[in-house]
Every structure is written in structure tokens, then in C-alpha cells.
Fold this protein.
Amino acid sequence: MSLFGTLRTPRHLVFGAGQRHALAGYATALGHRALVVTDERLGVDQEFIRLVDSLKQAGLDTKVFDGTIAELPVECIARAVEAGRAVGADLVIGIGGGSCLDAAKVTALLLAHGGKASDYYGEFKIPAPVLPLILMPTTSGTGSEVTPVAVVTDPDRAVKVGIASPHIISHTAICDPELTWSCPPGLTAVSGADALTHAIEAFTTLRREPTGTIVHEHVFLGKNALSDNYALLAISHIVSSLKRACDNGSDIEARERLMLGATAAGLAFGTAGTAAAHAVQYPVGAMTHTPHGAGVAVMMPYVMEFNRAHCEPELVEIGQAMGLDLMGMTTFERASVTIDAVDALFASVGIPKTVADLGVVSSQLPLVCEQAMGSARLIKNNPRPIELDTMAILVEAAFSGDRASLRATATTR
């Protein structure tokens, strides 16, 4: 297959300690009336207040909406849109974790094009650019500051649903690791585990035939030469920093490397996409009300085993990026060591071992499989084709904790 690569990225991406102070300069170039989307906790944070003051001092009329709720119910977005319309916002700034950034994306969409969030579910449903977006993460996890997707919770849907379009990629992303210093260990763990899952899935997604129209047929294009570089960069930084950042939130180098890794993972999956681990998490998360990052991380070692026959060389490259000693082993053994190392890293930061540990009960497994198969944009990206019966094998292993059964299947393929 010929060499092919694509990136879908912000126009400006700024990373580094203290770079939050660049916010006003970018904002004044994009609009006059800014809606700042955040949550209640950040809304009273002194550093957040200073950032808002810097916007006002730069001459922007600035309105703060601090009503973002975790998991992002659509009614919360409706209130943000009302706030934006009331002030005639021509610029949206999202500051906070993944839910705040996704809320800002959908708010900018609805302020520009009207309607309801549900009008845009799926891929390529947004007809034209949205209001200018500046996104500033305060966690090292979702990578939403650089991706073309926002995920919301709709009461009419059993699982969370995505809006995917290059039009909701931010104009400017500002990633300042100093904003993550107060992130508690538990949130650091699930956010960082989410980011590592993004990178691993992006690196092992299906590689499609690069037709001349592929970029217009898929928001998430699958594995490619450019996204691969960001995925490996992310894996290297996250693996070396996740446990350190969880153990000592004041470890400045770990915080910096973890945020850089999370942003690089966003750049990787923002083009390549994610796959089965995310597909299974959506119903599991809806059933158990557990964090997204915990759910995808639980699934990741099982998915790596499940997919192994279709991406074994990539699993070896992941192990090399992790810094593992893989000398003198067969390819199969190297892939096995890599999967074991991912599993061990997640365990070291408190990620549960099974979906049963998250609260799934055996009677729910058929529904988990059925709803996971409904995430078409994720299922079509998986390197191993999945049907309902093979999804059941994966989910049952993740429920029982029997990862060895998936490895045994791979051994006899």
C-alpha cells in the first residue's frame, strides 16, 4: 500500500508552562464578544478568574457560562447556547476538562447553525464552519482541544453519541501543564489512561486503501503515516509520566510530559480514530456511571489481545515506544510483553481489571454487545472485523477477566 498521511489539526497549537497567558492575544484576533464555557468548580478558581479578567482587560465583552456538567447532557448545552445568544457571542472559549471542551464545541456549532445537537449526530453533518473556538484543557486526557469530535449524553439515546466533523476542530488550542497541577490522583489516573488508550487505538486502527476521496468519506481515516508519529510520541510520554504524576502531583516534569502525551494522542486519534475499546465503553459507562477513561482503559488490554493477529507488528512498535526490553523474543512474545505492560501500568494507577469491577452484571452482557455494535464509526475502525458473535467473545473475556483465553485463541490462529 502506498505511503499516505493526513492530519486534522487546529490552526494554532501552543504548548508549555505559562502559555495560558497567550489567551487574550488570540481571542482579540478572533472576536469581540466571548462566551467562556467551563464548570462550576473552575468558575470560582482564582486562576480561571484571572484568565477571564485578561480577556476583559484586552477589550472583549466576556460572558462566563459555568454550568457544564460531567458526561455532558444536551440540556446543559442548551443553557450554554442561551447564554451565548443573550450576549451575541462571536467567539467561544472552552476551559476545563473534556466535558467543558466538548460543551464549547457544540455550543459554537449551535450558535453558528441553530437547531439541536441531535441534528448533527454522526459524521460530516455540520454544513460549514462554526464560531471561532479556543480550547484550553485543565486535564491531561481527552485531547478534545485538538480533535474533530464532541460526545454528548442524550436522554433519548441509550448511550452517549458523537458529533464528528472537521468544522469543530478548534481554531486555537492552548495547553498549559500548570493548569493540571491541582488535578487529583484519581482524575489524573483515568484521564491519563484515556489518553494512552487513544494513542494505542490510533496506532492500531484499520489501515484503509487511500483513495482520492478518502478524506471526504471518513472523519476518522484510520492508521496513516502522520498520525502514527503522534501516537508513538504520545505513548512514550504517557508511559514515562502517568504513574509519576499520580504518585506526586507536584512532579512538574511528569505533569508536562503527561499533558504533551495527551495532546499528541488527540492529534493521533483525531485523524486516525479509535475503535473497539471505545465502542464497548459507551454502553458500559451508561450502565455503570463510571468515568470514560476508566472504561476504555479496562477494555484496552483485552482489545489488544482480541486484535493481535491483525496488528501484531504494531503491538511490538508500541512496546518499543514504551521502552520495554524486547530483545531475543519472537514477535508473538514481544506483543505479549507489550500487552502485559499496558495492563500492569493501568493496574498501578488503580484502573479496575474487568467490566464486572465497574459494575456490569452478567445479564447486561448481551445489551453491552448490541449497543457497542451500534457505534459504527468505532467498529468500522477496528483492525479485526467485528460481528455480534465476536463482540460477545471480547466482552465476555473482559467481564470474567480471562484475557488468557483471547491470547490462547491468538496462539492457535
About this structure: The longest helix spans residues 292-321. The chain has a mean pLDDT of 95. The chain is about 55% helix and 10% strand.
